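[Automated response] Your request has been received and processed.

Submitted sequence:
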Amino acid sequence: MIVFESLVVRYPRAKTPAVRGVSLAALAGRVTAVVGPNGSGKSTLVRALLGRVTIESGTISVSGADARTLAPRELARRVAVVPQRETPAFPAPVRDLVALGRHPHAHGLARWTEGDEAAVERAIVEAGVGDLVERSSDELSGGEWQRVRIARALAQEAPALVLDEPTTFLDIAHEMAVFELLHRLARKGTAVLLVSHQLNLVARFADEIVLLHRGAVAAAGSPLDVMRGDVLEQVYEWPLVVTRDPAVGAPSLVPLRGHRGARDTPSH
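Generated structure:
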């Protein structure tokens, strides 16, 4: 379980905080999605969890422990993170990259175990990268690299999984596959915290949505609670309507054509 409590984060020389008193909980067995416009503070939450930005006030706890007190390896045993941006320092075989997910579980000079190998194989299958394992990272497309990063996180076998825009560069089929995978992992007991711009997919798969606006929580609750036209129009500052997805009945956002702040009548 990951809990953000009254979190405030301010970047150096910034006049206002990037995150202003945000509280949310990503619980075991649930998909919790953080959404909002660019610059609303979504990725800052992930950076704060990883200790890459200074927390001005508030706390982040992981499985009951303050994240700031956990050594990097212990934090990695508790939560696997797929950050938004990452560039490999040098080319490496895909299988070796996925195997890096087992590093938090290594002890001194202990040898690679059958359990490690099994975890890597499961991650490769779950992330759907079996066709990539014999390739080098410098031979991958953006979407393929994204899937390999997800596989590496799965190999950690941590009880919590945090992903910042995990479907960037993915086509529709692989995008859906990632959301289906996150849903399955949650149903098996993983706490999944997802940062995403894909509101309509989030509405299909998330148990709870936290909508950020200018660093603060604008709305939180079930997809039906958050995916409301009056709420989303105010946050995204664009005319829109919210309908129902005909396939699953989830709320679905439809942006309208027109200038910012002015609703046009849709043509038929």
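Summary generated for your ticket: The longest helix spans residues 172-187. The radius of gyration is 19 Å.
If you did not submit this request, please reply to this message.
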